[in-house]
TrEMBL record:
Name of the protein described by the UniProt record: Centriolin
Keyword Nucleotide-binding: no
Cited InterPro entries: Cilia_flagella_integrity, Leu-rich_rpt, Leu-rich_rpt_typical-subtyp, LRR_dom_sf
Repeat is among the record's keywords: yes
Record-linked Pfam families: LRR_9 (PF14580)
Organism annotation: Oncorhynchus tshawytscha (Chinook salmon)
Gene label: PDE4DIP
Recorded coiled-coil stretches: 286-327
Record keywords, A-Z: Coiled coil, Leucine-rich repeat, Repeat
SUPFAM superfamilies (alphabetical): L domain-like
């Protein structure tokens, strides 16, 4: 088969075929054979999901209209994979994920029993999914494949706490988000998207992650990838066809920082690389730590200065408050004195008026007597 040609596997007319994706780490099987497909490359095995043996998808003539076919990409070591459908003009419209569609695909009335769901759309001209939605009842779902669609945002997966594999390759996703709750996730395939950054929370939240595929994205920072160091179970990482893959010592840098890696871009980590990585980056790491230490010391000094300034400002505010409280007490004392003086004057006026009235009364009586 020529390089750059995509082969589609479709069922023979009238034949009943059971499509089953194999377990993580095993090659994709030909639908008509129990032997590995000869054109399958290990680099792309993470782009396929495995199907639970209790939830196989039977394909007959009656349901060919919603058949989700598998695409096997052919690639030489120097070549480029052409499995992504970039021709959006061939899309005939948008399709929506509904509970009824999930029931028909999985042949399950109770969605709580669904363990594996394949919503990948690779058939040219088929309607594609734009939104991830209506998966709340699939609370025991372990494998979800929504590859080869036009999804822009990872969302509405909060109920899928048991998810182990998530395939979102060949979409138009710009940001890794909405996965913070997936502590059980072991495989994350985001190849062929528009992702430019690896978030800081990824290594803290996805502690069970073993396989991460970010091939053919826009990642350009090796420093961001060093944040994956806490992922002690990460054994397989794919970053080919990103800008960082062209940087010098790219492999050695990742081998040095991600000690648990066994495979990088489909190639096993050699013992020679493990020996060269510390020699190449140990001194740089020490220098970087020294620079970080200097920056931290400067930051501590700045914070201490800010703390002293804040304490002085607080003391000034407390002094001002004391002055205001003293002034308030003085005003209250002055008001009390003024009230007391006013009461005394009022009392004296009352006495004067009483005595004046008494004097007038006595004068009247003397006048009448005479």
């Amino acid at each position: 088969m020529k390089k750059g040609v995509t082969q589609r596997i479709s069922p023979r007319r009238g034949a009943k075929v059971s499509l089953r994706m194999q377990s993580l780490g095993s090659p994709l099987l030909d639908p008509y054979s129990l032997t590995p497909h000869p054109t399958h490359l290990p680099l792309h095995r993470t782009t396929h999901s495995k199907m639970d043996s209790n939830h196989q998808l039977d394909i007959t003539d009656a349901n060919e209209d919603w058949l989700l076919t598998e695409t096997v990409a052919i690639e030489s070591r120097e070549g480029r994979v052409w499995s992504k459908h970039s021709d959006e003009e061939s899309i005939q419209g948008i399709r929506y994920i509904t509970e009824d569609l999930i029931s028909r695909l999985t042949k399950q009335d109770n969605l709580a029993f669904v363990r594996s769901l394949n919503l990948a759309v690779t058939k040219s001209g088929d309607k594609k999914f734009k939104f991830i939605e209506n998966l709340e009842k699939c609370e025991h779902l372990q494998i979800l494949n929504v590859s080869h669609n036009v999804i822009e945002k990872i969302e509405k997966l909060e109920k899928l706490h048991n998810l182990r594999e998530l395939h979102l390759s060949n979409n138009i996703i710009h940001k890794i988000e909405g996965l913070e709750h997936m502590a059980s996730l072991q495989l994350l395939n985001l190849s062929s998207n528009d992702i430019g950054h690896v978030p800081l929370w990824l290594a803290k939240k996805l502690r069970s992650l073993q396989t991460l595929n970010l091939q053919r994205n826009k990642i350009s920072s090796l420093h961001e990838l060093s944040r994956l160091k806490p992922l002690k179970n990460l054994t397989e990482l794919t970053l080919a066809e990103n800008p960082i893959a062209n940087l010098p010592h790219y492999r050695l840098f990742l081998v040095f920082h991600l000690r648990s890696l066994e495979t990088l871009d489909g190639q096993p980590i050699s013992q020679e690389e493990r020996e060269q990585a510390p020699q190449r980056f140990q001194m740089e790491e020490i220098e970087r730590l020294e620079q970080d230490l200097e920056c931290r010391v400067a930051e501590i000094g700045r914070l201490q200065s800010e703390q002293v300034a804040a304490v002085e400002e607080l003391e000034q505010q407390e002094e001002l408050i004391d002055q205001l409280q003293l002034k308030s007490l003085q005003q209250q004392h002055c008001q009390a004195q003024q009230k007391q003086e006013l009461d005394t004057k009022t009392e004296l006026v009352g006495i004067y008026l009483s005595m004046h009235a008494l004097t007038q009364t006595q004068t009247e009586r003397k006048r009448h007597t005479h």
